[in-house]
Amino acid sequence: MSLDLSTPVLVVDDYKTMIRIVRNLLKQIGFTDIDDASDGTQALERLREKSYGLIISDWNMEPMTGYDLLKEVRADASLKHIPFIMVTAEAKSENVVAAKEAGVDNYIVKPFNAPTLKEKIESVFQPA
Fold it and tell me: What are the residues facing 109 on neighbouring strands?
């Protein structure tokens, strides 16, 4: 699977400023179809309404965390194929391990820039 910039991307974060930052970085990379959700519950609703090619989600959200969202997505047969990148402010190794075990495709620590985000996204779409 190669990187397709027309792929719909869902950005999930409860912090509006972070959504705007990630949106702008995605646009810099060349993505054009970007939606957002303010928590895991809203993200699941969006995921059931539209076909996304990538999820970029914050870890720390209320009431449903990015980690819980990841587990829900991986448990859903119609969604589990979607690449999932987790964004977090803390690079705690136990979080990384938990996210990997839950099936995250990549992990990105705030703050980050467009080249870093692009590299993480590209690594997700590289043929195994």
Answer: 88
